[in-house]
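ENTRY TYPE: paired fold submission
RECORD: A
CONTENT: sequence, then structure tokens
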Amino acid sequence: MQSIKITRKLFLEDRQGRTFADVVDDPEQPFNEVLQFFNDAQRQRRMEEAEIHHDRPPLAGVVRELEAQPAIDQFLSEVHTHRSNRLRQAIGVVVRMIMQQRGWQKTGRKGSLGVRAPKSGVPTAHHNSGGLAFWFIRGERYELEGGMPYRKVRERCEEFDAAAAEEKPNTVRRKSKKGRRKMGAS
């Protein structure tokens, strides 16, 4: 699939994107770098693979590379909580726009990307102490509009356990040579 190209104009025409005009219009925010980053076909492929193969939010497929972008990392590391939070939210809108144009829909659930570090009392940028991402806590989850190619582990487990409960195998317990109980056929 070809890459989806999100421009400033398209972003501001989006119903949710237009609510982030402050981010787009702020020359100190690295919004152009965000768009350039996400307009890459290979990154968009990895975002889809995060959902399909790793059961993680799309952002999980690219978040480390995103956070390694100097302008983005520098901006998020500065102590201006509201502005950095707005940039992170705008990134979520860019991800949604790309995923929807690639045939995905929101699930209404979020997936974990990191564990927020405890507040130290010293003014500092909000970051994580563990997990996959340093600056992002969670990301929206998506599913293909036509259905996912693989079932969730939880669904398979429930089906497996239900089938096993119906089978009721004919087994008896007997003691092994070491005195432990062992399953065997009767």
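RECORD: B
CONTENT: sequence, then structure tokens
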Amino acid sequence: MIKPAEMPATIPLFPLPGALLLPRTRLPLHIFEPRYLQMLEDCMKTKTRLIGMIQPRQGPGGEERLNAIGCAGRLTGFSETEDGRYMVTLSGMSRFRLQREVQGFTPYLRADVSWEGFARDLGRVEVDSCFDRPAFLDLLGRYFTSQGLDVDWETLRQAEDELLINSLSMLLPMDPEDKQALLEAPTLTNRRETLVTLIEFAMLGGGEEILQ
């Protein structure tokens, strides 16, 4: 486990729209672009092996910018394919706030980041003390039905609060802006409330009546 004092001030960035990484979750990635293959090689040489996942967004003039907040993951697994590509796994460590992009000679982005305000991410598993699991699973069941999605209900029922809420935040089909809102939620309770709002909105958009 990486201690807060060991978190580096500068990390490589992997901008990927719609890809959400949260603390204490795992994100599989398929790496094949030459610049990101170089990023992996450089990452493996560092002590922390951190890569910052961050979502791009459009600025006022239509230019591409980066969101202010991302999440760093530690490279914990990878395998190489016969054609030189990599299947890797990032284990979510902590969110960060983008300070400034670092100019240099790497083909990929690097940035100075701040970890301030995200100490909770490196702590213990969060608990949602206000979580009404039966009501949440009922809403989830109606959402899956409206979307025509299959689900392993036994796994959902047995999952701890944090794993359930964070996994759904990562996996459910939502717009990048919605994923960013879930990432920036300060606490697990806030993330669950945001997730419920997004699910209810998606169901209303599909003509589904929300029962209170």
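NOTES ON RECORD B: Residues 133-205 form one domain. The chain has two domains: 4-122, 133-205.
STATUS: closed
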